[in-house]
Amino acid sequence: MGFLDALLGRSKPVKPDLDQLFGIPSAALTLEAAAGFTPTGLGSVCFAAVEGGAFHEVEAQVRALLDADTPNGGVPVEASRDEYGYSWLLARHLPEELPELVNDLHAVNSELEANGFGPQLLCSIVTFRNDEGQSLGLVYLYKRGTFYPFAPMPGGGERRNSPLELQMKGMLANDLRVEQDLSRWFPVWGAPGL
Question: Tens of pLDDT along 158-189?
């Protein structure tokens, strides 16, 4: 970073660190012990779709990689597209298989990144739920290398439980690199698995 950048308040963007995803199982222990949230076994990766044969080939490789881990011909991954045109891959595991789910999400991100599609990666989400039916997503922002909690209100609609999100921010500070800029805590309405 140069003198002019420092003077103007510009900073270098954080290099994505996909290994941050491996902190999720530790954060899950904190969430369960302190707030009663348990993993659902669902996690998703969101990316901006790119047209072209190379991208479709990589997407097929990612799906084949995840499908290979599924015993008995189950459906571990589902592809969808949201109303904004972003693509989602939803991975499914048993709730107690959180480390395996995290490995799958890491593999998807790594495969896309290794094939030059890192700039298209937006976020990854691992979903938790408590006994009252409150969902909580731990959202990993690829371009920031940070996490934030997203808690849509139960019962549908586009309302979020902001007090819960702020409470979770404090709880997770020792387990994950939490995004400090609250303006970057984007709502991910309708995210698969959430």
Answer: 999 999 999 999 999 999 999 999 999 999 99
pLDDT for 5 equals: 55
Q: Are 27 and 126 in contact (CB under 8 A)?
A: no
Taking the C-alpha atoms of residue 180 and residue 173, their distance in angstroms, rounded to an integer, is 10
Question: Sheet of 135-141: strands edge to edge?
Answer: 77-81, 86-92, 38-48, 121-129, 135-141, 146-150
Where along the chain do its domains lie?
Answer: 14-184
Q: Yes or no: say if 185 and 56 are a contact pair by the CB < 8 Å rule.
A: no
pLDDT (tens digit per residue) in 121-155: 999 999 999 999 999 999 999 999 999 999 999 88
Q: Residue 127 is encoded by which pair of tokens?
A: 């979903």
Cβ atoms within 10 Å, residue 110: 16
